[in-house]
């Protein structure tokens, strides 16, 4: 995310990183949910986590569209959307960490 923001233009290697991040985050979330068997499935962390994963998917798809269209204006403005997605992703990241530290 920060490479794309610093370079101020979307490049193909950013797209690879977005899809890899989506796959890794989804896999990690799936594995962690298996460890949480028996715990309440609907809570702040799980709702924001699902929202973050959906936003990551939308982000990766949108990045794919932007690169395929090869529109320089869209490529240059894409980093604003990336920042938004990253900020939303931080919510479940920190809420899960804090929830387990409090226990």
Can I get a quick summary?
The chain has 103 residues and is mainly alpha-helical. 84% of the residues lie in helices and 0% in strands. The model has no long low-confidence stretch (mean pLDDT 83).
Helix content range of the residues, please? over 70%
Secondary structure tally, helices: 4
Shape assignment: elongated
- The topology string of helices and strands comes to HHHH
Give a verbal description of the structure.
The protein has four helices and no strands. The chain has 103 residues and is mostly helical. The model has no long low-confidence stretch (mean pLDDT 83).
Blueprint of the fold:
Layout: H1 2-7, H2 12-35, H3 44-69, H4 72-102
Throw out a few tags for this protein.
single chain, 103 residues, mainly alpha, elongated
